[in-house]
Design a protein that fits this description.
It is a single chain. The protein is α+β, with helices and mostly antiparallel strands and 140 residues long. Helices cover 37% and strands 18% of the residues. The chain has helices at residues 2-5, 22-31, 43-49, 51-70, 115-125, and strands at 10-15, 81-90, 96-104. The protein has a three-stranded antiparallel beta sheet, with helices on one face. The chain starts with a helix and ends in a 15-residue tail after the last helix.
Length: 140
């Protein structure tokens, strides 16, 4: 793909983020309610115990993100996608994550486009901020 399309525009990684999905954890506890002590299990323990449900949930979530945000018909978040490739991997505890490379139509290319064009494109699609110390102690 790189030979045909050139260098990819973006490298995207998305994780299951099971620690930050209270509704999904609640669902895992419900469907596994027959397991002794399930109500005291951590998200990591629940993920390791039921990798099939976690994988199904993650694939649906990733497909929704990819189809409705990244490849949206109107206003895709990074611009119109020319091509893509992704690979889903699993951590030891069973939690999936995806690595995806994207080729965005008419996006500037490092080494071909001016530094100014590349900078403007990056600043138009990527944002960053420190989490609030009072609202998110684990991320701060």
């Amino acid at each position: 793909m790189i030979e045909q399309e050139g260098p990819p525009t973006l490298f995207v990684t998305a994780s299951c983020a099971e620690w930050y999905s209270p509704e999904f954890i609640k669902h895992l506890r419900y469907i596994n309610s027959h397991v002794v002590g399930v109500d005291k299990m951590t998200p990591a323990e629940l993920t390791a115990m039921d990798p099939v449900s976690v994988a199904i949930h993650f694939h649906k979530k990733w497909r929704a993100i990819f189809n409705n945000l990244i490849c949206a018909k109107l206003n895709p978040v990074f611009g119109k996608i020319k091509d893509y490739f992704w690979r889903i991997e699993y951590l030891t505890r069973g939690a999936p994550h995806v690595h995806c490379i994207l080729w965005v139509e008419d996006a500037p290319v490092i080494g071909k486009s001016s530094l100014d064009e590349v900078t403007r494109y990056i600043e138009s699609i990527i944002t960053c901020q420190f989490p609030d110390k009072l609202l998110s102690l684990t991320l701060h």
